[in-house]
Amino acid sequence: MTASGPDRTPTDSRARATAGRYRAAAICIPGLEATCAAELRSLGCKPKPAGPGILEFAASARQLYATNVWLRTASRVVVRVATFRATDFVHLQDHAARIDWSRWVADGFAARFRVSSNDSKLYHTKAIAQRLHQVSVPPSIGEPEQLFIVRIDRNTVTISADASGQALHKRPWRTELGDAPLRTTMAAAILLACGWQPGTGLVDPFCGSGTIAIEAALLARSLPPGGERDFAFRQWRDFEPGSWASVAGSIATARSRDAGSGIGPILASDRDGSIVEAAGRNAERAGVAADIELRTHVVSHLPGRSGPGLVATNPPYGKRVGRRELAGLYGRLGAVVRDRLPGYGLAVLTPDAKLAAVADRRLRSVARFRHGGLPVELFHRPATIDVRPERGQAESAPARPVAGQIP
Ligand SMILES: C[S@@+](CC[C@H](N)C(=O)[O-])C[C@H]1O[C@@H](n2cnc3c(N)ncnc32)[C@H](O)[C@@H]1O
């Protein structure tokens, strides 16, 4: 099959006409639903929550392609293939045999079933996948795979075809990682949930491999987070080359825009010189190296900047660093932001609300999710006009948001 899809038969064109709208779902990390939903709305979709980390929406082919290209906080976009009840293998195979699998699996491709089961009579996930292969498409013996996500919840089976292919959070530029790297979709969510405005400043004083700064530069330039990668939907029988060409055209337009326009100063620093070099190479691969000033120094050497802008960071945490040491570090972060970055808001991702309060007592929780197996929380304080308050007035200074919060 070519990138523009297989030869079409009359049956295929009928399928295409009826498949004009997909029942799609964006999958994100539970806790990022509000931010992902705001992104979907900006692409003209009407998302509805359908469980933790699941947002369902009706999509035209163009919207399905655009969500895969432009969503910064989703891990995957899937399309519902079938929903039915099954309490035994006979029912499962009976329903599955009626699905037109060739619509989703092109010649030369194999199927892969990722199965999960909750409170259901069918629970042996490997056996379920085997039975599905028997009535659909065999597993891979070297062929590329089309992934299907099979969720069985209280005996209701939902089969979804993965439209993305490689997970969306696996950005192609991100080949070098430091300790405790932040997931790209979380970095994007920090910026979007705290209402960071591209064109204003962005500082990450614990930048590690540069995830937050690179996501910020891509956002500021309106570049697609995954670059020019491929997607699973391009192999589907009802793939629409014309709709794809229109989405690809929007990527080309973004690329042709004046690189420097609309981008505020983005500063990323870390005390570890080797990880700062790696961040530079990541930024190079992402095509945004020119937008980011990289520096090697400890947080207390952060240079001063006038606002508006946002300090967005995930400082060290965890058992390896002593509690006292961490409190000192968060305290230094808070003092540096207050003293040298007037006009900057602060966004801190940490599992520890008490440490966040050490950095700044005005920080408020805006999102909660899991990162590296740990529950973490995103704390935010918008920028204030008067950021050098008189002694004793610090807590009463009115907070003026730099940008509207995304609900
Ligand atoms: C949790 S990691 C940040 C990961 C980063 N967001 C990423 O995606 O790769 C914390 C970083 O803080 C850095 N760090 C620790 N103490 C520091 C200090 N006193 N000043 C500046 N950076 C420090 C570490 O070198 C590490 O890269």
Structure description:
With 407 residues, the chain is of the alpha/beta class. It folds into two domains: 10-162, VC0802-like (2-Layer Sandwich), CATH 3.30.2130.30; 184-225 and 256-396, 3-Layer(aba) Sandwich (Rossmann fold). The chain contains eleven helices and 14 strands. The protein has helices spanning 10-18, 33-42, 61-70, 89-97, 125-135, 184-193, 211-220, 241-256, 273-286, 323-340, 353-359, and strands at residues 21-28, 48-49, 54-60, 74-85, 110-118, 145-153, 156-162, 201-204, 266-270, 292-296, 309-313, 344-350, 364-371, 374-381. The protein has a seven-stranded mixed β-sheet. S-adenosylmethionine binds at residues 178-182, 205-206, 208-209, 211-212, 270-272, 275, 298-299, 314, 316, 329.
Annotation keywords:
407 residues, alpha/beta, VC0802-like, Rossmann fold, 2 domains, seven-stranded mixed beta sheet, 14 strands, globular, disordered C terminus, binds S-adenosylmethionine
What is shown here, in short?
The protein is an alpha/beta fold. It is built from eleven helices and 14 strands. A hairpin with a 2-residue loop joins strand 6 (145-153) and strand 7 (156-162).
Could you tell me the radius of gyration in angstroms? 23 Å
CATH top level class name of the largest domain: Alpha Beta
| Residue-averaged pLDDT | 89
- What general form does the structure show? globular
Number of β-strand runs: 14
> How are strands sequenced across the largest beta sheet?
2-3-1-4-7-6-5
Molecules bound to protein: S-adenosylmethionine
As for the CATH topology of the largest domain, it is Rossmann fold
Sheet-strand content, in percent, reads 15-25%
**Total helical elements:** 11
Helix content: 25-40%
Biggest sheet details: 7 strands, mixed
**N-end to C-end Cα span:** 43 Å
* Fourth-level CATH superfamily of the largest domain: Vaccinia Virus protein VP39
The CATH architecture assignment of the largest domain turns out to be 3-Layer(aba) Sandwich
The domain count comes to: 2
Structural class, from secondary structure content?
A: alpha/beta
